[in-house]
Structure formats: structure tokens, C-alpha cells
Amino acid sequence: MPILDFDIITLGHGSGGMLTNKLLDSGVFDLLSNDILDERHDGAFLELHGKIAFSTDSFLVSPIFFPGGNIGELAVNGTVNDLAMCGASPKYLSLSFIIEEGLPVKDFWEILVSIKIACEKAGVKIVTGDTKVVEKGKGDKIFINTSGVGTINPKANIGKKNIQIGDKIIVSGNIASHGMAILSVREGLEFDSEIQSDTTYLNHCVEDLLNNFGTDIHLLTDPTRGGVATVLKEIAEATAVGIEIYQKNLPIDDQVASACELLGLDSLYVANEGLFIAFVSEEKAAVILEKLRQDTKGRNAKIIGTVVANHPKQVVLESAIGGKRVISMLPGEQLPRIC
Question: A biological process (GO) annotation for this entry (predicted)?
């Protein structure tokens, strides 16, 4: 914990004056120090070579601390993973805070520490950012925006246009864990063991797959808000292909499945934060799956479906007992403030 002479964030900490500098000097700059951020310029001077990817995202999850993570590491992992889904190796992130006055400094510090650790694990640097403070009641503790840039892997050719009939659809791990971890805290639900969010960085895992299989990986996407079902429906509509998925193949933790059933939620629509979906060539699907399962991020990966010529623009689920139903997009907000 930094040695500071205040316990809570006040409006003065967003004024740009002495209090702002005290907060940033004792927190952000010291903790996240690197050669680029240490310049303390209005922007960052970066060296990037070749084709790059750029992504931005805002995070307003409630609660800000949840089983398996907090808003800080979620913000880093979210943008790192968005870049990885483009086939890029993330390099640099910006980091901006909107803080509600009254936030305990100990909470802010814990978030900063988690950001530092998440950056170290993913291998990225925070190089620029901003801090604003809003009046009590005009925010909700803390909101975070992160933007990121990374260089495209030379073996990557990621895009919906690459999807082919016969492609296999792989999900990298157990579904619905993040959404149910958030909901269990909000609703005060207790289970035999605590449901943990799956928030994590995926860039190293994805880079390894691209280095080994290159253009056999046709599309990558992360099923965050709206879950697996909504992402697959969006892809089917955008490409005019049909998609078939198999309920018996969907990887899900038993406790998460039980929680979904208890609350009347369809796990296919529950948000994820540490998963990706890959559309891969039929010929290499088995070896790609085997390689993915060798990584700790993909040990529960499974082939969950196939791209088909039938029922274009539709996603069809084959149930465990052989029945079939059409999967639509999530019609509304199943669980707000999830990321």
C-alpha cells in the first residue's frame, strides 16, 4: 500500500493540480513505470513495424471486485484479447480512469496492482492515459477505458470472408463462468465452491496457434456480452452460412451449469471473458484442438460445431437427446454491467 496522507479519492484528485500529481506520482507512475510512460508526455512515442491492429473498450463492471478478478485486470485482459482476436500481438495500452469521489484509496491501489500484474503476464506496457474524478452519485466507484495497439502476426489471415463450408468451430474453454461469477455476487448466491470469473489474457495462446497453423485459422472472436450464441448468430448472418452446434460438446463447469439451471438462464447467452471461438479448416481441426489443449488456457477446449450449407444465416443447436432448435441473438440485456 502506498504511503499517502488521504484515504479516499476527492474531486481535487481530478483537478490536474497538486492532489492529482500526488495521486499519480505515488500510484500510477511509480507502479506502472516503463521507459515510455516515464516521459509523462500528453501522448506516447511508439515503435511499431508492419501492419497493426487497434482496439478500444470501456469497462464498468459491477461489482468492481468479483470472484476471480476485478475491473483492473478485466480492462487489461479485455483489450489484450480484442487485439489477439485480430491476429495481433498486443504491445501498448492506454489507461484512463473515471473515478467517483469517495472511492477508497486502498481499492484504487488494489486495482492498480492488478493492472500491473495483468500487463506483466500479457507482456504489454501502459504508455499513456488520463484520470478524471466525478462528483459523488454521478459515477459508480470507477470506470476504466483502455485502448491498445499491436502488430499483426505475419501468418495471420483473420476475417469472416475466410469461413468455408465444413469449417469446424472450436471454443477454447468452459463457457458462462464470468457471467455467473458476477451474478452470484450480486444475488448473494452460495454454492459448494465459489464460481470464478474466467478473465485472463489469451494473446500468447493465440500467437502459438497462429505460428503453428497460420491460415488454417479462418476467424477468431471472443464471446463476451451476449455469449456464444449471439456471436455465432452474428457470424452466420454476416456470412450467409449455416452453423450447427452440438449441446453435448459444449464445455461447461458442472457448478456453473447448475447455477444457470437454478436461475433459468441459458449458458449459451451468458458472458465470457477468457475464451475465444475459432473457425478452423476441417482438415486441421483435430490437430489444432490437440495443440490448444496443451496450453493451460485451452485445456477444456472442444469442437462444438460445423459450418454448413444448409439453413443459411441460421444457427441450429442439436440437443443432447437429438432434437434441434434455432438459436437467435440475445433479444435484450440478460445481465447489465457485466464488463
Answer: protein maturation
